[in-house]
Amino acid sequence: SFKTGLKVSPSRSSDGGPSASTVIYNHPSPLKSGIYQVRVAARDDRSGILGSAIQWIVIPDLSAHQLTLSSLIVGLEDVANKSAGAGRIQWSVDKVFAHNTHLRFMTLIYNGASHDLAARVQVYRDGRSVLATPFKKVAQQSDPQRIPFNAEINLGGLASGRYILEVTVEDRSTQKSASQRTEWFIQ
User: What pLDDT is stored for residue 89 in this prediction?
Assistant: First the structure.
């Protein structure tokens, strides 16, 4: 548990009016493997407006040396400071996306030491598959214990509502597989 304060200044658009601002805050916390509930709350000192969010996370036991995936991170967006040349990536916290956009996502493949990994992406709505890709070979990386896998899907043609994104990775040499799911929404 910790408490901290942030000072946020509203940004201005090119016409001088207020624009929507985004606040990104990170607090690294070394945790042992297990299931955790993360709770976050924020209060605006001026208005007193409160907001909060709760998310369950699973930190896998990597010492078991079994194929596993990190949580799915959805809505990846490059928020690089172009003038400083420093790139940063943020992702969608509310997991709400507009029609006819693209959903970029990633996961990390842990203990994928085999050079024969393949991944498949599926999207479900109301328990039915509405989009599925065939298994495709995962590009090899210099660190086989932590392999990033990212992709994007076109949301064109999908109706408003709740969806489930599922990524499955197979190690074809050992016949082992691992999957990860997350829910998201189209407005």
Answer: 63
